[in-house]
Amino acid sequence: MRGARRAAVLTATAALALSGCGGGSGDTDGPYSAGAWPGRHSDARNSNTTVSEGLDDVTSSWTRATGSAVGSPPTVAPNGQITITSATDAGCNIFSYQMDNGRKRWCTRLGPGVADISPVADNVANVYVGEAGGLFSFNEHGQRRWRIPVSGTPRTAQFAGDGSLVVVTHFGQVNIVDPQTGMLRAPLFDLVPIPTIADGTDIPRLDPDHGLVGCFGGSPDCPVATTPAIDQDTGRIFTTVWRSGADRAALVALRYPGGDNPVVTEEWSNVDLPGGATTSPVLSSDATTVYIHDGEGALWAVDAETGRPRWSHDLGYTPATGPAVTEDGLLVVSAGGPSGALFALRDTGDGVESAWERDDVRQAGVPALTANGRGYTVVQDDSGLTALVFDVADGRTLDEETLPETTGFSVGTAVGPDGQLIATTVRGEIHVLDGPED
User: Which letter does DSSP use for residue 223 in this model?
Assistant: First the structure.
């Protein structure tokens, strides 16, 4: 069965490559139509879910070390190609590996800031990734397609409904880019106003990597520290921004409608979240609700059209990332808190209720959910880290596999096109677990 699914994915990918000439711009679904894990949080909604089916039984397939710390999850193209960045001092700092055997396909070195950026893969395995002052695109062989200059360092990109790349830099510059050519499809939009002549003539120009160290949690030096979520049907873009003079980051809704004369406009801004908006926004499957954590330990559900809160739920801690969200409104929360329990909440529309909780495990990662109701995450015990497969409906363990000689925590969990579990540790180790051989 795994081989049949892989063959279908590769056939579809080959057809797209022939029809799009290596492209991107003509495929309105961006990378999300073919599955796998093409973005930091999988899809345009940041849902941490995939259309691939998960496995009940996993075993270690291979392990690779990037050579230094990793601050951002890997991404997986529909052909199974894994791409990841690392904080190496010399040599390559972006790597691409084959899913089946861990063989390095290509690597190169980019500028500062890349270690905290997840590359984005389209449906023919082209890769888009930022560095300080620029955005690159490489093809699946690592050959450079184009580079464009930007103000600041691009955070992880997303795809709009018309196939455009939406790239928001940590300075708050919004770029709408044709993925085929690198040309802008809309005028630049600045979430944080740039200085004008009215502000004086001696304002220093900031280096494009200025303030990157403040991007963990956000700060005035890193106005946009998160990954935007996009409603591909309406063109709404949800992001966080810490504006000049503010004491916290706001949740903001923009709109990029596409069309003949596209412009980016701001629809609303919610500045009232206690402690500010601290995680990447996550959209519900019907795109009516935005989920986000504040700085005082609460999870919020916000109306996507108006920005008004629907409910908040006190967790007692703030995870580093937003929840994984299923189509029926189940929210599996990321690691954190004093106990590190693995648990799920249910959105009831006007409130939230507990669905299940596993206080016998200590979660040390980010959950990833599959189309057939399987969940993957990483848990911690006295001996190190373990990959856990659980039933999303009730949280019960289906399988677990020790990740050898690992400590610390996982910076991300991804799912391959055949249901492979990919776990990455902060130390820079990539672990790929697959099902039994046919």
Answer: S
Residue-wise burial string across 411-434, b where 16 or more C-beta atoms lie within 10 A, e elsewhere = bbbbbbbbbbbbbbbbbbbbbbbb
Distance CA 57, CA 44 (A): 29
394 CB-contact burial (10 Å; exposed 0-12 / middle 13-18 / buried 19+): exposed
Nearest to 70 by CA among 127, 114, 126: 114
How many helices (H) and strands (E) would you count in the chain? 1, 33
Q: Name, in order, each residue with C-beta under 8 angstroms of 128's C-beta and a sequence gap of 6 or more.
A: 119, 120, 121, 122, 135, 136, 137, 157, 165, 167, 179
Reading phi first (left if > 0) and then psi (alpha if -120 to 50, else beta), residue 134 is in: beta
Output the six-digit token pair for 51: 């259309």
Closest Cα to residue 318, out of 243, 415, 248? 248
Please name the residues in contact with 7: beta carbons below 8 A apart, sequence gap of 6 or more.
Answer: none
Q: How far apart are CA 144 and CA 136, in angstroms?
A: 7
Distance CA 158, CA 410 (A): 23
CB atoms within 10 A of CB 196: 8
Task: Report the alpha-carbon distance of residue 290 to residue 53 in Å, rounded.
Answer: 25
Helix/strand/coil for 215: helix
What 3-state class would DSSP assign to 23? Answer: coil
Q: What is the model's pLDDT at position 282?
A: 98
DSSP H/E element including 108? strand 104-108
Look at residue 34 and give its three-state secondary structure. helix
Q: How many other C-beta atoms lie within 10 A of the C-beta of residue 33?
A: 15
Residues 6+ apart with CB under 8 A from 63: 102, 403, 404, 429, 430, 431, 432
Could you give the CA distance from residue 302 to residue 112 in angstroms, rounded to a whole number? 34
The SS3 assignment for 114 reads helix
3-class secondary-structure state, position 6: helix
The label of the residue with tokens 């039994």 reads 436
Q: In what order do the strands lie in the sheet with 59-65?
A: 59-65, 429-434, 421-425, 410-415
Q: Where are the beta strands (DSSP E) in 272-314?
A: 282-283, 289-293, 298-303, 309-314
Give every residue of the chain whose pLDDT is below 70, as ranges.
Answer: 1-34, 195-204, 217, 438
422-423-425-431 Cα dihedral, nearest 10 degrees: -60
Strands, E, within 124-216: which ranges?
A: 127-131, 134-138, 144-149, 158-159, 165-168, 173-177, 189-190
Kind and range of the H or E element at 358? strand 352-358
Whole-model pTM: value is: 0.91
In 3-state terms, what secondary structure has residue 37?
strand
